Amino acid sequence: MGACLATGTISAAELWASADTEVQEAPSLNAIRITTKGTNVRVQNAAGQTLEIYNITGVRIAAYKIDSNDTTVSLSCGKGCYILKLGKIARKVSIL
Length: 96
Prior knowledge:
Helices cover 16% and strands 43% of the residues. It has two helices and seven strands. The termini are far apart. The protein has helices at residues 2-7, 12-20, and strands at residues 33-37, 40-44, 50-55, 60-65, 70-74, 80-86, 89-95. The chain is α+β, with helices and mostly antiparallel strands. The strands form two sheets. It has a four-stranded antiparallel beta sheet with strand order 4-3-6-7, with no helix packed on it. It has a three-stranded antiparallel beta sheet with strand order 1-2-5, with no helix packed on it. The protein is globular, with a radius of gyration of 21 Å. Strand 3 (50-55) and strand 4 (60-65) form a beta hairpin.
């Protein structure tokens, strides 16, 4: 019995780490997706929401109403890092 306990034990640190681990769900087919290619941003499954564009200092520089479940927006901003916010989703992107 002692040998079984020795091979099946975990440290207290491992136990606490496993308690803090979040269970992540598999992405659903209707999950909001944001993809970028150059200055184009493709937004899927977000009809009726607003895509907000922020510069790196946190100033909102643009907002686009997403009118369908598959929309492509062409950003009219210069090269740099930006934050895209759509509902609870935020992504950092670099425009080159």
